[in-house]
Fold each of these.
Amino acid sequence: MNWKKLVLPHILKLQAYSSARDEFSGDAKVFLDANENPFDEEQNNWNRYPDPLQKNLKAELEKIKGIAAENMFLGNGSDEAIDLLFRIFCKAGESNVITCPPTYGMYKVSSAIHNVENVEVPLTPEFQLDVKNILDAVNESTKLLFICTPNNPTGNSLRKDSILEILETYPGIVIIDEAYIDFSKEESWIKELDQYPNLVILQTLSKAWGLASARLGIAYANTELIKLLNKVKAPYNISGPSQKVVLEALQNPEIFKKQLKIILSERDRLQVALQDIPSVKKVYESDANFLLVKINQAKDLYQKLIEKEIVIRDRSNVQLCDDCLRITVGTEEENKHLIKNLQLLLID
Ligand SMILES: *Cc1c(COP(=O)(O)O)cnc(C)c1O
């Protein structure tokens, strides 16, 4: 399949904006090229425009992920990459994309923003891909397919054989969203990038890396598709302060590893504690940092927890998730506090 045929013609032709930092990025004594304020009182370079291609961050990510910088795009959260994929491939009022609910809500919002039809092919009752129905839903206007694994809000990983079948047969761009991959026992799909030019993988530093506030999402894809993403993005899409904070975190991965270990053991503990509560009908297996819980009177319980100043996520109106609440794994103390309050509420 030639994925380039899916790109909107005006995007292929687009001449990207060339910023001052694109045209000169080496060392010099005097920078009078970008109309910046010359004063740097705090000595932190906040008066200067940041690196548009975030080379320092990509160099660290190369080491951690084992993927070349030229196969990486960095965005203002994964949400930016999702938005740009619509801009590159989808024509308003004409193209369509496929999503598999229950899943991450942003795919649907992004398709609505771009006036692109969102064709929903629900997961099976076991929360797995319905490959036959996905392939049946494809027509000549289909451009993108969003697959989220581990999936949000269900927490499970999608079966490898189903994803492989889709990669082999689906004629559009396949986007695998791995926001929760660090919590998973399954391997990332990034090793398959070489095999599939129509594959885009999304990861984020918002979850396991503890940097939701820094807004840093990663898209991995073939080098030409990465060039298109860079062409379409805002020139300075990752701020200087974010680049600094993220670089420090990536250079100190032992903090991330330590926290990840705690979150995973807390997930197991929380799962057992929830299963011991009589109103809990089911705690779904999770490969992520949250648990989907089927429970009697979910909505009511959600409200009562808010009165106790504990906020979880009500997913009971989501298809296939009747009576379900989504609970993020917190610190040991937070999880104990939640369990104690649940026990009290469910006795009354
Ligand atoms: C949280 C989440 C993201 C992260 O989005 P950012 O914009 O990177 O913070 C992406 N995909 C899924 C499925 C998520 O749950």
Amino acid sequence: MRYLSTRGIAPELNFDDVLITGLARDGGLYLPMDWPQFSSEDLRAFGSLSYPELAAEVMRPFLGDTITRDVFDNLVEATYSEFTHPLVAPLKQFESNIWLMELFHGPTLAFKDYAMQILGRLFDQALLARGKRTTIIGATSGDTGSAAIEACKDREAIDVFIFFPKDRVSPIQQRQMTTVEADNIHAIALEGTFDDCQDMVKALFNNLQFRDKYALSAINSINWARLMPQIVYYFWAGVSLGLNERRLVFSVPSGNFGNVFSAYAAKKMGLPIEKLIVATNSNDILTRFFNTGTMEIRGVQPSISPSMDIQVSSNFERLLFDLNSRDGASTNKILEMFRSEGKFSVSEETLMEARRIFDAVSVSDVDTLERISTTFKEKGEILDPHTAIGVEGAYRFASSASMESDLSIVSLACAHPAKFPDAVQKATGANPKLPVHLKDLLTRKERLTVLPNSIQHVSSYIAANSRVEVT
Ligand SMILES: *Cc1c(COP(=O)(O)O)cnc(C)c1O
């Protein structure tokens, strides 16, 4: 399988180079040249597979010959055997046509573990095979950082530097990053905001000399290898519900558009998906796009679902590229305009095409709390605020004119409620408990470095602590 950049200039690469490169050198994102296809017969045969077996089947066509079958199967098996639910991604029925798929049974309690745990292992594998090391840097507002740290701790070929805004992440999120005892992990509280953390990462990447010297790499969802493992659970949901004459709708709480793009990939690969509901909080840039055809930046408003407080959804570029018949030059032009003017529009025809697949809703904090409360009263289930936004999207869709009787809606539970105790407490009065393996999280010893928002300080810290051999 070959991969091409959404900007059309960077060279085509194999899977392992895409993995290690992350962002294409032309500033674009990598996508597979074509989508692997599964027939309805293939899908029926998937019915007897465990989650790791299905995961290996769905991902294998993306890898080409960059990793042997045995090695990959074992890697996938090892990954998901560490998840705390035997089904890995269990489904719960809420209504005759609404299900919840729980994606918080990994080590850091958010769906990001499902991909990051694979990514950490793939990275180590690819680097050791080449006798190389890498320095991973990343900015986080909470969930990505902890998932990356947990996935990369003690891996031989990787050093990890995660920047989070000092005093601006929740105590649980912070402790998930700072209580991991591993010499290759560096949790850095930057004296600044999340945007400062992101700018810092960009500045480090833009210093090409520094980037090459310390072999910098990225683990956020611009990396194709973050999206690939997410495709699996959409197939899992379809196969678990039985695909006979069933058409699927997924409701996906969205920020960076990574998770829902994986659903789009599953549709392209043959899963009978009728609609994808892009569910956002009051930061509704995506919802406004799907309603009007215009993508326009407005300021970020803090909400009770902080992992979706996002202004620019980086993975939207992948959809835009597809909607533009995979024309890199025109994708580039639109995105240049977006950068300079904070706004772009697509044609009526392109919008119609997008709306055939996507539906979008924006859910306020008030409605989010209301959904958590109702679900607790009626179903006895505690939802985290991100999950509640997806569930609200599912109920709104179920009561809309688009809802036909043979549709099944699966809403994604993106985080464990104990990660966001304040909102949950406010809505239900209940205090969600952390799972056993994290019970003592709030009393563990923290290891973190506080650094000023200064590129000089940060670069020298990385230079002093990265194990990449400087030549
Ligand atoms: C990352 C995250 C999201 C947003 O997912 P995207 O792939 O960025 O759209 C939603 N909910 C939770 C809990 C998250 O951690």
